[in-house]
């Protein structure tokens, strides 16, 4: 398994992105697509928000029919969320426009949107934009899906003669079940859609669902994987060695994109990582890790380079997991500061130095159990407040 | 029921606060007590953090024995939290010192602390401080318990010939189950401790547990009510008219203190209130209300006076309650902006003006159910980040 230096589309995939003038005062692309030469097996996970946006409702019903897709279209700047029946009609029209252009059934087209809530999609611009989309090898779609993201997020892997590539966006509203997060992963491996769906859920729990920026979950989150089999390798079957390699590749792609999203959290100046072990089970460790990186107090202390371990302890105690203080061990940026529930005063000076870094990592042991888990987030900065106090106007 | 202009201690209660030099570079009092002339019936609720501080552990075991207290001692600047066996011994010594001075059993003395986590209490200063405490009628204890609070929080009520008075502190780490919140309520009414405990739990759910500043829950939270019966009125029995009046008085005291805490949240410039109705039950309404006021995105938008109703809708959808978009009605500062799940564009200009206020109130209806609930919080400001990036150092 090798990480490639740039985004390479797997065999039989094309992409494009153009400026459909959805963004005001911007020269950035805002509409794009990914197209497979042949029907691909597909899997997806969606937001758990009670008010899923129109494209989420539509794509969910599209993909769950037979776990197949051949293309996806995505726009930024407008989320087509909380737009009622008209919003759903607009999403369906967008799906039909792409289907017509590609001479495919609308039932194999995914539709995705991100941006502001509560405005109808400008269908004249969407229609004109789709007319301009080409099948190319460019990677501009990674830029087209950005909102308050400061960098585009991509990864390509080479494994067993196959390619897997992923792009993602998302920098605010990231929390349980993938707040305002879009990610599209393509591979030329051959794998059954049902098997892919099962694997995707499993890996989502330990990657995208373990990042948090501000605790909110958007109405538009969507993660889609398409596998078109065009590398010509044998089909990947459950519990085979090839499956383990495929799983490792997908895990790597998803974890890399998730960490890139956390690191580029709105206003973030530091990546905050929590590694937890010693719990009764993995779920407990993940809950603790996520509570740490989700704590505003921990996040603000990370920004201030304040070695305030008390807040980490406080967060651990708030995770909803039964724990005993005497079992707790905590290291911050590899400096052990709590052992067997006792403060190691002698390490305080070393800790003061260690937190002056662009990464803050908490290594926590909570007992002798076999459970482990990780979570990733960002610090809480003045810039975060600025971005979010002034987003709409 | 009449709200008095200043803090008046109920009959048979005394209080005092002094400077025990626990705070560095401060002239503020940092140690205080409240003493009843006679043994009082008492009730309390405590933090649900997995690592309760030593004073929480001690006071919980003290009060649950027989629901009686005669005095409480409290210090700021040091939380005596995550301090192991030594911390527990120090809390017990503090309890004994107060008991000796008052010639009482330690079993009727509550001990409470707030401040930094992980440092042992300076027992020389605590000992010297307790020696200085007097029985007086001053209200300086309300200042002595302040940490990052900017104003002291007190209320006194006159009802049916009795007095009820409360003080509180807490401006950060306020969330479910009373993050870093201390409140002490005294009354000269006569009511059985078990009955008082039941009522206290019920009212905590709709007052202190419905405020949130930053989603964390401290290791030290404690709310104590003492009723010493010294007004000479008849004992308040369950389900009597007098009980309803007492309940209304305690609700008023608790809600007033809770809102004062929310309004004085760290760095807060605005009080944010959510009123939710129409849910299946009260719990669902409270969950929705608390999710709204707890959302960093809603809080930042409130700070920026940005009428970003999409974030409120997003928060409502994230509360873990089953809802349908078409049932949602939302007014912001009394301007209706969503009705039957549809945006009322015509009110957008009015909304822009309405959010320019030092209060932001969201009135939400989610259906035709009888459930209702409220929650209170503060906006998310640059000052919040500043305070929390630099608290310890």
Explain this structure.
Chains A, B: Catalyzes two activities which are involved in the cyclic version of arginine biosynthesis: the synthesis of N-acetylglutamate from glutamate and acetyl-CoA as the acetyl donor, and of ornithine by transacetylation between N(2)-acetylornithine and glutamate. Chains A, B: GO terms for molecular function: L-glutamate N-acetyltransferase activity, acting on acetyl-L-ornithine as donor. Chains A, B: Its main location: cytoplasm. Two copies of one chain form a homodimer. Mean pLDDT of chain A is 91; it is low at 173-179. The radius of gyration of chain A is 22 Å and the shape is globular. Chain A has helices at 54-66, 84-102, 123-132, 141-144, 193-206, 241-263, 282-294, 296-303, 309-317, 348-354, 382-389; strands at 2-3, 13-18, 31-46, 68-75, 109-113, 153-159, 162-169, 182-187, 211-212, 222-227, 271-279, 329-332, 335-339, 342-343, 359-365, 371-378. Chain A has two domains: 2-262, L-amino peptidase D-ALA esterase/amidase; 271-389, ArgJ beta chain, C-terminal domain (Ubiquitin-like (UB roll)). Chain A is built from eleven helices and 16 strands.
């Amino acid at each position: 398994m090798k990480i490639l230096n740039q985004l390479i589309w797997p065999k039989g995939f094309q992409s494009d992105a153009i400026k459909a003038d959805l963004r005001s005062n911007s020269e950035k692309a805002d509409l794009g697509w990914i197209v497979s030469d042949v029907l691909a097996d597909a899997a997806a996970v969606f937001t758990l928000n009670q008010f899923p946006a129109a494209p989420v409702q539509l794509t969910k019903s599209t993909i769950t029919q037979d776990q197949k897709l051949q293309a996806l279209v995505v726009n930024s700047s407008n989320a087509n969320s909380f737009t009622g029946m008209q919003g759903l009609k607009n999403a369906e029209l967008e799906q039909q426009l792409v289907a017509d252009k590609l001479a495919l059934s609308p039932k194999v087209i995914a539709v995705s949107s991100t941006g502001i809530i509560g405005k109808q999609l400008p269908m004249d611009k969407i229609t004109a934009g789709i007319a301009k989309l080409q099948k190319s090898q460019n990677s501009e779609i990674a830029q087209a899906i950005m909102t308050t993201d400061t960098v585009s997020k991509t990864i390509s892997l080479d494994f067993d003669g196959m390619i897997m590539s992923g792009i993602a966006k998302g920098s605010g509203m990231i929390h349980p079940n993938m707040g305002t997060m879009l990610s599209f992963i393509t591979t030329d491996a051959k794998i059954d859609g049902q098997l892919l769906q099962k694997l995707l859920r499993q890996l989502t729990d330990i990657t995208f669902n373990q990042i948090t920026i501000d605790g909110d979950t958007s109405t538009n989150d969507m993660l889609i994987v398409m596998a078109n089999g065009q590398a010509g390798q044998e089909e990947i079957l459950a519990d085979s060695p090839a499956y383990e390699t495929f799983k490792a590749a997908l895990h790597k792609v998803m974890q890399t994109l998730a960490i890139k999203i956390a690191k580029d959290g709105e206003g973030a100046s530091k990546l905050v990582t929590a590694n937890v072990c010693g719990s009764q089970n993995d779920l407990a460790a993940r809950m603790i890790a996520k509570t740490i990186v989700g704590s505003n107090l921990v996040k603000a202390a990370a920004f201030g380079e304040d070695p305030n371990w008390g807040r980490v302890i406080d967060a651990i105690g708030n995770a909803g997991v039964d724990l005993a203080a005497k079992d707790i061990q905590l290291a911050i940026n590899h400096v052990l500061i709590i052992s067997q529930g006792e403060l190691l005063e002698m390490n305080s000076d070393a800790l003061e130095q260690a937190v002056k870094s662009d990464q803050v990592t908490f290594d926590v042991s909570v007992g002798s159990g076999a459970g482990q888990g990780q979570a990733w987030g960002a610090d809480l900065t003045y810039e975060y407040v600025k971005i979010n106090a002034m987003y709409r106007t």
